[in-house]
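Predict structure. Chain length: 414.
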Amino acid sequence: MNTELFIARRIFSDKSVKKGISQPIVTIAVIGIALGLAVMILSVAIVTGFKSEISNKVIGFGSHIQIVNYDSNISFETSPVNKQQAFYNDINELSGIKNIQEFAIKAGIIKTQTDFAGVVLKGVGSNFDWSFFDQNMIAGKSFRITDSINTNEILISAHIANLLQLNVGDKIGAYFIQQPPRMRSFVISGIYETSLSEFDEKFALVDIKHIQKLNNWTDDQISGFEVSIEDFSQLDKMTDDVRSIVGFHFNPDGTKLKVLSIKEKYPQMFDWLDLTDMNVWIILILMISVAGFNMVSGLLILILERTNMIGILKAIGTKNWSIRKIFLYQSGFLISKGLLWGNFIGIAICVLQAQFHILKLDPTSYYLDAVPINLKIWHILALNSGTLIITIIMLLVPSYIISRLSPEKTIRFN
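Prediction complete.
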């Protein structure tokens, strides 16, 4: 029988204890733990949700990994690569690869009778994954491409549509400055909005065959390949795997291919997202510290209130460590009570925000229209176990005061 646990349970469940002088202080400590855990759950859910949402939007425009021509060209007039590559099947068979698709890009100008705007036309093929744009469609629908028939449909952003006062079904002209200058007519099939202004202001999607003809490319010439993977956390590993297959490959014309991860293509975006991790760690450290010091003060009051009991236990030969365990068990019960309420408050707020988007954001500043929530069970378990373990460890030092109490003086203590 665990005597220490038995005594701690009796003290914790004793109603007369709740009328003691320690009750208000212990209640404050429990409330502090509950609020601290709720804040930690919210912080982790919001920050990871923010990183996930922004990352998914950037990936939606450029996929996880790109394979393009190895040159110093940083403009939108890229050197073509051959669509027929020996490594295609090898990459497709890699574990963790979700999809491979070809793309081609070209800068142009969309003009109406009264206005015009510069755009980057991204040509996509029949194997393009439309799931990202389907999720962010606000009007119309995405178009589908076949290898045999050209389509004159175009997908534009809400920013471009508002700027040029365009709607679904409108015909627009795209002009390209080259020798000779060229023009293509398109019909708007859909309008998307991601709130990621850096991309919404630029990109429009068309059939890849238009880009090939405008660039005087053959049907086998493209700007490159986009590779999407199943697990973003494995991006670095998958990039190395793809690079090991493609990185030393030379085309028949002597050109070389290069492999870029989305982090390497947009480092400023992902470096900014990584900085948000520091905010979470600061909040976690502060909240756990506050919870721990609240419980330290609560434990000292509990020891003071039970001084007579400590003297009696020492008088009958109970060891100091056994007495300390009684109070540590009792503190564990109080911490667990605080964690229970903290989970309820934190998870409830997360669920309400995820379902009803109560807290709104300015998309021009945060790239999102509402506070995002990414609630994972392992995050909750880690926060609960971490808070419990760290707080108990913090209580080991103040519980040492028990060993310094004299049985004779504590029994007579009033």
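Summary: The chain has two domains: 3-57+269-411, 71-255.
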